[in-house]
Amino acid sequence: MTKSKIEWTDEVWNPTVGCRRVSEGCRNCYAERMAKRLAAMGREEYQGLLTEGGRWNGMVRTLEDRLNAPSKWKKPRRVFVDSMSDLFHEDVPDDFIWRVFETIFRGNRRHTYIILTKRPERMQDWFQKNQSRFWHYKTNLYPNPCIWLGVSVENQRTAEERIPYLLRTQAPVRIVSCEPLLGPVDLTNIQYRDEWHWDALRGYQWKDAHADWQAGTAKINWVIAGGESGPGARPMHSDWVRSLRDQCVDAGVSFFFKQWGEYNEHGKRVGKQAAGRILDGRIWDEYPQVAGMN
Fold first, then answer.
1. Model pTM greater than 0.85?
2. Into how many domains does the chain fold?
3. Bridge partners of 257?
4. Which residue range forms the structural domain that includes residue 211?
């Protein structure tokens, strides 16, 4: 494990490595590029995970020797779980996922664990199936304040495909990571199966255009947004990220702007470093307070 360069986390913890592309947000996957480099350096855990063209081949590898890494970190920190994979990938065994959470509960709750997935249907199903196992930890039941769950989305379609599953999964903090942001996303009107709609930032839902809004549903507590970087990067329109920022400000939800990416706010390709992460004169690096379960 190493200190992370990802702006919103302190550390990465990869008990699994390897993945499979599932949507357009995966086209220029930074983890793929890193895995290719590490495999070329001879790192054994990355051998056999990529095609000849350097893309994920769908294989995942569970790494037993990394399970206890958080116990070595004495100072509390934010930990991004599986930056080089997806913990809820269909080929990660259920029992191995449970062992990851066992590591967290057995003396490592001083850290905050941030888990993002593009497979929220399996995440919801896994927690439902394993709910009774958490009872063995008595007062340390899931959802625990140290476990933050989220989905990665890149446009409105993937937001509407993934966010409803997240809202149905218990968590003290729910996250939507819009990176790479490839199109506009309206989190105040998430449509589900042509029937239900959610204002995912305020915790309201309605069934059709004529129904009264109903309060008290689950909501999003943190939104991360960022443009794409690296070879083949696609530009992020400044209106898309400003819209997300404004939605969060209006709803009182924490907003974190990670980066413009390869293109600056004017659409000119200047490189990630030159483009920076200033939005309308300031750095947006808000973090959520741990929310109550609902």
1. yes
2. 1
3. 225
4. 11-283
